[in-house]
Each structure stands twice: as structure tokens, then as C-alpha cells.
Amino acid sequence: MASNILLSLLLLAAASPAALAGFDVTQMLADKSQYGTFLKLLTQTKVAEEMNRLKTVSLLVLPDKAVKPIASLPADKQRLAVANHVLLKYFDPIQLGEMKDRTAMLPTLLSNSDKRLGVVNYTKANDGQMYFGAPGAACVAKLVKVVAARPYAVSIMEVSKAILPPALAGTGGPGRLPKVKPKSSNDEATAKSAPAPTAALK
């Protein structure tokens, strides 16, 4: 009897999410050539290594035809952009579809560098389609399909477009610092000699 109980406990432990947590995202994508460029970015930026250290994670992967907005960024921004496609919890279409609200803000790996920008907006349209978007940008990255998954530990889902905060994409918006022209000595002299503004006439 005791041995049967012990065996049952061992089987339950083996099937638990914690036991399934070990994974290698590069191996999960290795035989899927349509994601070759994104896989290369995952490796070069070392985001894959960070993912593999997490217990639960979801990757929003881009096919080669849609990865150019990230691949064309400078190296330092590439890492941030790729990290923004890594959700810090396990999600699959079923879990997303069963959310109480049709919209949600999902933390990403980018939150380790920037908590304000390190989220992805999720929304479920009236027709059931699911979309993602960065803060300050439209939710237009459509969830296409599940590429690979290990339930409750890691999922890899294809999206149609890159999810880039405007600050990374270089399109302005939240997080982008405006360029300020430094004052010269001539500007300061002009400001001092300029007459004070007069009050408006009533």
C-alpha cells in the first residue's frame, strides 16, 4: 500500500509544471526554418539564455517575412525588442481566450530593463481573433498559431507583426526623449537683452 502511494506521488510530481520547467527554446525552434532569423536574434542577443532560466515563459515569435523591423535595429535595441516578445508567464490560445476581460497588460522580459515599456497589450476582438501591441502602439500583431509548447512551462506562438514600443521603433510616442538643442552663449546673451513680455491689453 505504502509503495503504491509513493508511486502515485512520484507520478504526480513528474507531471507537475515545476518538473516540466526545464526547456531550451533554441532546440524547440531548431527544425523550424521559417523562424531562422528570429532564432538567430534570440541567440545573438542572449535572450534565449535568459528565457531558459525562467520557470514559465511564452515566446511571441516572428517568421522571417515579418522580422525586418527588429533585424534592422541597432544591436543594443535588438536585444530590447526581442525581450519584448517574451512574456513572463505561460500562455496559450485557450488560456488567453478564457481571460475574464477582453484586454490585458502582460509583462515581458523587457520589464527587467524598463518596467514602463516592458508590457504587451493583449486584446480579443469580437470575432475571436487575438492581437498584441506595445504601449503607445496599436494592437495589430495577430496571434497566428501555436508553434511549439510544453504545457504550463513554455509556449511558442507565432504573431504576424513585430511588437515594438515607439521608443524602440523610432516613431516617437511614450518613452522617446525629445531632442533638445543645447543653449549657446549667444542664445543666453540674446535672452538677457530681450525686453520683458508686456501684459495683454484688456
Automatic annotation (TrEMBL):
Q: Which residues form the signal peptide?
A: 1-21
Instruction: Provide the Gene Ontology terms for cellular component.
Output: plasma membrane
InterPro entries recorded = FAS1_dom_sf, Plant_FLA
UniProt keyword list: Signal
- Residues annotated as region Disordered? 169-202
User: So which domain of life are we looking at?
Assistant: Eukaryota
Compositionally biased region (Low complexity): 191-202
Q: What protein is this chain from?
A: FAS1 domain-containing protein
State the organism named in the record: Oryza meyeriana var. granulata
